[in-house]
Amino acid sequence: MAKIDGNAIRPGTLIEHDGGLWIAVKTQKVKPGKGGAYNQVELKNIITGTKLNERFRSDAAVDEIYLEKKDYQFLYASGDMLTFMDIETYEQIELPVEFVGERAQFLTDGMKVMVTSYEDKPLGIQLPLQVVLTVTEADAVMRGGTAAPSYKNAVLENGMKILVPPFVDAGTKIVVSTEEGTYVKRAEN
Q1: Residue 6 carries which DSSP code?
Q2: CA angle 172-173-175, nearest 5°?
Q3: Residue 27: which residues within 8 A CB-CB, separation 6 or more?
Q4: Any idea what the CATH number is for the domain that residue 10 is in?
Q5: How many structural domains compose the chain?
Q6: Considering 64, 97, 112, which residue would you say is the last residue of a domain?
Q7: Which of 73, 153, 175, 180 lies at 20 to 30 Å from 107 by C-alpha?
Q8: pLDDT tens per residue across span 35-94
Q9: For residue 98, is it left (φ>0), alpha (ψ between -120 and 50) or beta?
Q10: Which residues of 5-31 are buried (b: 16+ CB within 10 A; e: fewer)?
């Protein structure tokens, strides 16, 4: 951990404060007519999400935090636990499904993900922005219903239900956004 002055805190700076990990969301330099200058900082706890407004004087020293980002490979799911392997050291870690959230349905065997951690404690996981999945079921197209393009329901190989354009049929490989869970385009074979 590096010590930085209170006036060096900028938006995006990660610091340790009151025993928690905080990211600076907004900062404002304040120079009152009476008393010393200070940095008014809006902080957000990166674990709990709570917000806090704090004043840091220029002579106050705070600990700046650097998070470690490592590439992992998804191996398998077992019950409510997901197993990942460090690509460099081959060490395995288990994370609960809730840690990944709804995006866990996009995990496929061998998928590369980036795990952000602090002092070997995982804080977040980043999946690829898009994945290729196969449509297993697709509704029939309603002919003559409307001139406007309409979407139809489809079920993907992971069991997820999404809306797809009328030309997508069962067996078609499509690209899906992992952030929004929506159809992006037909996959190129």
Answers
A1: G
A2: 135
A3: 9, 10, 11, 39, 40, 41, 42
A4: 2.30.30.30
A5: 3
A6: 64
A7: 153
A8: 888 889 999 888 787 898 999 888 888 888 888 889 999 999 888 999 999 999 999 999
A9: alpha
A10: ebbebeeebbbebeeebbbbeebeeee
Residues 51 and 74 in one domain: no
What would the DSSP string read from start to end of 9-60? --TT-EEEETTEEEEEEEEEEE--SSS--EEEEEEEETTT--EEEEEEETT-
Is 107 found in the same domain as 144?
no
Beta-bridge partner residues of 55: 40
Within this chain, do residues 162 and 135 fall inside the same structural domain, yes or no? yes
**DSSP assignment string, 81-136:** EEEEEETTT--EEEEEHHHHGGGGGG--TT-EEEEEEETTEEEEEE--SEEEEEEE
The strand pairing partners of 38, in sequence order, are 30, 57
Q: Are 155 and 136 contacting, i.e. CB atoms less than 8 angstroms apart?
A: yes
**Domain span at residue 12?**
2-64
Pairing of β 183-186 and β 173-177: antiparallel
Among 136, 138, 78, which residue's Cα sits nearest to residue 107? 78
3-state secondary structure of 8: helix
pTM: 0.70
pLDDT reported for residue 33: 85
Tallying the residues shown for the chain, one arrives at: 189
The model's pLDDT over 172-181, given as tens digits with 9 standing for 90+, comes to 999 999 888 8
